[in-house]
């Protein structure tokens, strides 16, 4: 990276991966802002970490599991499950078609 | 009468019960010299007096409903009731609550009614505490000024042209104005401590895992912590005791025994050792804040503690590590907001949120993972070792909370780097997972509060509280309220 | 055609039949035709603030499957987040395993050679989608009942080189999964799902082809074989033209008896895996893994007693079949063939055949069944003739009869052997045993 700004294609690709709808104008803005952030955090490359093992959790906990038991008190009725959705039909959530029309 | 002057008027004629400590209030509730109804009533009077200007809250519970709960609390109080029984409180709007809508300050969740309660809410409800409001914040915790809220921006009660800090500006302003005896905040990289410093109150960023995160809307899962915000270290202790503990619904919650945090506080700090990291007091730190903390250092010495200079040279790498880990995790955690099962679409994310999600997506994407995310996780190990080497010899590290006192609005909004630098002293605490108590240590010439933090060992909350409490028994910064502020 | 060979790696997803979900306490009900969205909670619906806690049984079972398949069990394992956006994936990521799966390696023997396993990992299932028209608009209906069901993914090395081998591999794997008792592995219900990754190369070539085609929506072993055949022919035709088949995902279309290109609106695949911060890592001691291994033979005992009681087999037959999963699979397939049932061939007869005969690996179950039926119908010996032979043998061996009556049970096998010799191998052996026992008891 070397702090270089991202290209418009980079931004569009990231936006697609991140599922963030952006306009042309926003992508110009984001090139700068994401670029600045990325350039800033790239400073980390200066910290030597050879041979260091990554830490992804700080608790030191291991093997935290639940027994295989059903807890009905945590389950929702169909009505509760759908309560906050804007578009439902016959007990289903509804979204725009995800399959393209086939010939 | 404008609302702030109405508040001032109101203060002259009322009892100001909410200036009292939690334990004092609990004692009076027990001996029936006061009632929860009076307390809740005072909460609403205070909110009514200032909310139209301050905007600490996003959603406030219907007053009649709250009073009914208070009445019930008065009727059900026994000698064994928790000190929090019948105590009104507020939470940052990043906790899901069944009774009040939950927005995380984002229009994406504008109408979201959670079908379940966060564990911290359940615990407080079990103790009899009464939730009366959901407080303002930077949407999803993304910010250091609460300016990234989709609701009216919280004003600093000490100077309404300035930010209350963030991301939890709402809960901090609420405590500064004594709306309630305590609030629950959330700290991922300073979100509890920074607003506390800017609003002149006391707050505790707990050890990672000390309090269940179940129902806390995730910002960055490996950094997020749930903690109390209140007037004093002692009040924080009382609340922590009620909310701490392992939760079968949060696999990262700690099975470490819950201490009696408020017990055994002394005025003498003889034998206590405090580390003073010299790198933290170099260029970049406001001179007034620096002077205030140097005075606090003397105060600790006069209380009997040994304070020694130490070197913590990794400071400059803290923000880069944080701004890789937190955006990466948030890009993942915010994936669920697609408007299908609840809430609105992703086009409603604020610019700041979009920026963080995009940055995180980039850092995790193929070809960059090793250079960013993995590198940051390695740096995390280096930080843990550095902290451990200091904290094996000292009870706490004394550090600033912010480089500057409360900023004017707009100062952080469009400048990603300034925004990032605001939490330079805070983020490494989350990266390492240790607890930190933020407490007031003075006022600027302009009358703005200043704060400092005491950073401790994993599960060292009790030590921090006793240090903070000893300091507060010798100083009165924490008793100051913004009532003298002119508009 | 003969100059080309198939190179197939399989991905098999198996839903575990735990009582509750992978990361939540919802009921795990894999029955079809239930109302949508009736088994959900904050966790599997991906609500704000919800956190996953892994199901211990699901983890144990995955390890046991690995042990049954000869995998190496990870000393340290962890879950990771796999990110993509799709409406049936409530969190925008699937909790899966990336670089530290529970099981590594292992194999399944087939009569065409060993199929090595690459890895076995544990993850959560997604919800389901139905595509329909609503008010004239194309929509997808989303149901999260299945969301959060424990799902095991088994990935093979590209060691499969024919549709027959694929079928045998799948049948054996299916058998082993059932044998370990962790899943119904019902293809029609979708609790076992296959995705062959198919490519074709010139025979004798050793390098991997530069492309592969993934085929989805296969819900029977038969269709798996058909899809592989179809793809083989399709690829060869393209390769013959000097072109390379497009790397893509295709779906098996039962009506067309063909695979069709699946044009699904999906983002670019860059899953951005990172360690799941909500779940602490897993560490297994050798002792712990041994306790799981010890639980496996118990399962074998259960399978043995099941197969014995279902088909009237003796202890020896049960043992021989359970010890060899290929034979067990063959037995279970053949015993339920219509031709075998019409011919009224008994379970023990089939079991003996499979245990004792040197079966040509290339012969199909149907061919074996035909051979068994033919062997049965050669000579029918009447009960009277059988009894005559039994009486003769008993009269010739009075001491043996006396010993038996004195409690020497094994003598029965001696007498049986003599009767069979007397009959020159003809006659129904089951019937012989029955009549001999009857006569001895008299
Ligand atoms: Mg998978
Ligand atoms: Zn569930």
Q: What is the fold's blueprint, element by element?
A:
The complex is a heterotrimer of chains A (103), B (487) and C (442).
Chain A: H1 8-18, H2 24-41, H3 78-82, E1 88-89, E2 92-96
Antiparallel strand pairs in A: 1-2
Chain B: H1 3-13, H2 22-30, H3 36-54, E1 57-60, H4 63-76, E2 88-92, H5 119-127, E3 130-135, E4 155-156, E5 159-163, H6 169-176, E6 182-187, H7 193-199, E7 202-205, E8 225-230, H8 233-243, E9 273-277, H9 287-302, E10 306-310, H10 315-333, H11 351-364, H12 370-391, E11 396-400, H13 416-421, H14 427-432, E12 436-443, E13 449-455, H15 461-474
Parallel strand pairs in B: 2-3, 2-6, 9-10, 9-11
Antiparallel strand pairs in B: 1-3, 4-5, 6-8, 7-8, 7-12, 11-13, 12-13
Chain C: E1 4-15, H1 56-68, E2 72-73, E3 76-77, E4 80-83, E5 93-96, E6 103-104, E7 107-110, E8 113-124, E9 128-134, E10 137-143, E11 150-156, H2 163-180, E12 192-202, E13 213-216, H3 221-240, E14 248-253, E15 258-261, E16 274-275, E17 282-283, H4 286-311, H5 315-323, H6 325-335, H7 338-342, H8 347-356, H9 365-377, H10 383-396, H11 398-405, H12 411-422, H13 429-441
Parallel strand pairs in C: 13-14
Antiparallel strand pairs in C: 1-11, 1-12, 2-6, 3-17, 4-5, 4-16, 6-8, 7-8, 8-11, 9-10, 12-13, 14-15
Helix pairs in contact in C: 1-4, 2-3, 2-6, 4-5, 5-6, 5-8, 6-8, 6-9, 10-12, 10-13, 11-12, 12-13
Residues 21, 24, 26, 40-41, 43-44, 148 of chain C line the site of zinc ion (ZN).
Q: Main attributes?
A:
heterotrimer; A: 103 residues; mainly alpha; Histone, subunit A; two-stranded antiparallel sheet; 3 helices; B: 487 residues; alpha/beta; eleven-stranded mixed beta sheet; binds zinc ion
């Amino acid at each position: 990276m070397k702090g270089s700004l991202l290209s418009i294609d980079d931004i569009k690709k990231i936006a697609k991966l991140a599922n963030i709808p952006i306009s042309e104008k926003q992508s110009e803005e984001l090139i700068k802002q994401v670029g600045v952030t990325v350039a800033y955090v790239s400073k980390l490359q200066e910290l030597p970490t050879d041979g260091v093992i990554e830490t992804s959790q700080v608790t030191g906990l291991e093997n935290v599991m639940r027994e295989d038991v059903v807890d009905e008190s945590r389950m929702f009725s169909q009505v509760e499950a759908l309560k906050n959705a804007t578009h439902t039909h016959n007990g289903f959530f509804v979204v725009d078609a995800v399959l393209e029309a086939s010939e | 009468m404008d609302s702030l002057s109405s508040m001032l008027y109101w203060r002259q004629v009322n009892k100001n019960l909410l200036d009292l400590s939690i334990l004092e209030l609990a004692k009076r509730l027990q001996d029936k010299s006061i009632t929860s109804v009076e307390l809740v009533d005072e909460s609403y009077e205070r909110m009514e007096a200032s909310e139209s200007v301050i905007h600490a809250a996003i959603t406030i519970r219907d007053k009649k409903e709250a009073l009914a709960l208070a009445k019930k609390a008065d009727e059900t109080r026994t000698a064994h009731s928790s000190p929090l029984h019948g105590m009104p409180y507020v939470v940052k709007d990043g906790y899901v609550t069944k009774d009040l809508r939950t927005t995380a300050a984002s229009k994406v969740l504008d109408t979201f009614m959670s079908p379940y309660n966060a564990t911290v809410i359940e615990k407080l409800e079990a103790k009899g505490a009464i939730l009366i409001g959901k407080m303002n914040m930077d949407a999803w915790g993304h910010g250091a000024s609460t300016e990234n809220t989709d609701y009216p921006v919280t004003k600093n009660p000490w100077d309404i042209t300035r930010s209350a800090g963030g991301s939890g500006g709402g809960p901090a302003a609420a405590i500064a104005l004594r709306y309630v005896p305590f609030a629950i905040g959330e700290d991922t990289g300073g979100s509890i401590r920074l607003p506390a410093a800017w609003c002149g109150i006391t707050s505790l960023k707990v050890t990672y895992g000390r309090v269940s995160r179940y129902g806390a809307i995730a910002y960055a899962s490996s950094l997020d912590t749930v903690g109390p915000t209140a007037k004093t270290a002692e009040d924080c202790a009382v609340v922590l005791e009620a909310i701490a503990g392992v939760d079968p619904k949060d696999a990262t919650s700690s099975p470490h025994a819950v201490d009696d945090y408020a017990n055994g506080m002394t005025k003498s700090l003889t034998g206590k050792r405090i580390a003073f990291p010299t790198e933290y007091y170099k260029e970049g730190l406001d001179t007034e804040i620096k002077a205030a903390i140097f005075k606090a250092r003397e105060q600790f010495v006069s209380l009997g503690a040994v304070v020694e200079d130490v070197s913590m040279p990794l400071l400059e790498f803290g923000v880069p590590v944080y701004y890789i880990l937190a955006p990466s995790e948030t890009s993942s955690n915010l994936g669920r907001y697609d408007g299908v099962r609840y809430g609105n679409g992703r086009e409603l994310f604020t610019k700041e949120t979009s920026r963080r999600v995009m940055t995180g997506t980039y850092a995790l994407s193929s070809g960059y993972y090793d250079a960013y995310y993995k590198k940051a996780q390695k740096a995390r190990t280096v930080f843990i070792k550095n902290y451990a080497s200091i904290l094996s010899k000292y009870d706490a590290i004394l550090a600033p909370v912010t480089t500057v006192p409360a900023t004017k609005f707009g100062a952080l909004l469009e400048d990603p780097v300034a925004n990032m630098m605001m939490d330079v002293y805070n983020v490494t605490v989350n990266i390492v997972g240790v607890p930190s108590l933020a407490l007031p240590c003075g006022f600027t010439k302009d009358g703005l509060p200043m704060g400092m933090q005491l950073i401790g060992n994993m599960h060292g909350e009790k030590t921090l509280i006793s240090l903070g409490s000893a300091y507060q028994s010798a100083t009165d910064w924490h008793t100051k309220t913004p009532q003298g502020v002119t508009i | 055609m003969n100059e080309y060979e198939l190179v197939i790696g399989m991905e098999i997803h198996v839903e575990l039949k735990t009582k509750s979900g992978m990361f939540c306490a919802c009921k795990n009900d894999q029955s079809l035709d239930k109302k949508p969205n009736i088994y959900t909670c904050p966790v599997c619906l991906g609500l704000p603030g919800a956190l996953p806690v892994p199901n211990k049984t699901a983890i144990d079972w995955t390890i046991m499957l690995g042990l049954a398949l000869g995998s190496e069990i990870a000393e340290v394992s962890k879950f990771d987040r796999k990110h993509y956006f799709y409406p049936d994936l409530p969190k925008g990521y699937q909790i899966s395993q990336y670089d530290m799966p529970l099981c590594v390696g292992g194999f399944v023997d087939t009569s065409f050679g060993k199929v090595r396993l690459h890895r076995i990992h544990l993850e959560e299932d997604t919800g389901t989608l139905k595509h329909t028209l609503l008010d004239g608009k194309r929509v997808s209906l989303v149901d999260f009942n299945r969301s959060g069901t424990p799902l095991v993914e088994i990935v093979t090395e590209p060691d499969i080189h024919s549709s027959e081998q694929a079928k045998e591999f799948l049948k054996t794997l299916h058998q082993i999964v059932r044998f370990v008792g962790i899943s119904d592995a019902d293809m029609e219900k979708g609790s076992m799902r296959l995705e062959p990754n198919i490519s074709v190369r010139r025979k004798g070539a050793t390098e991997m082809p530069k492309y592969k085609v993934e085929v989805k929506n296969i819900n029977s072993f038969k269709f798996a074989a058909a899809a592989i055949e179809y793809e083989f022919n399709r690829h060869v035709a393209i390769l013959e033209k000097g072109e390379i088949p497009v790397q893509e995902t295709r779906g098996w279309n039962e009506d067309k008896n063909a695979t069709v290109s699946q044009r699904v609106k999906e983002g670019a695949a860059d899953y951005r895996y990172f360690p799941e911060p909500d779940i602490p890592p897993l560490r297994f001691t050798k002792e712990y893994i041994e306790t799981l291994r010890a639980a496996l033979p118990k399962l074998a005992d259960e399978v043995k007693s099941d197969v014995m009681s279902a088909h009237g087999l003796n202890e020896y037959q049960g043992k021989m079949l359970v010890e060899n999963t290929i034979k067990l699979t063959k037995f279970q397939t053949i015993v339920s063939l219509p031709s075998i049932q019409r011919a009224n061939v008994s379970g023990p007869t089939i079991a003996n055949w499979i245990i004792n005969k040197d079966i040509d690996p290339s012969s199909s179950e149907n061919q074996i069944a035909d051979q068994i039926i033919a062997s049965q119908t050669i000579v029918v010996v009447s009960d009277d003739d059988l009894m005559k032979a039994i009486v003769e043998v008993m009269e010739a061996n009075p001491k043996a009869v006396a010993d038996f009556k004195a409690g020497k049970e094994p003598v029965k096998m001696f007498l049986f052997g003599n009767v069979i010799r007397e009959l020159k191998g003809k006659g129904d052996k089951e019937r012989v045993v029955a009549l001999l026992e009857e006569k001895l008891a008299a």
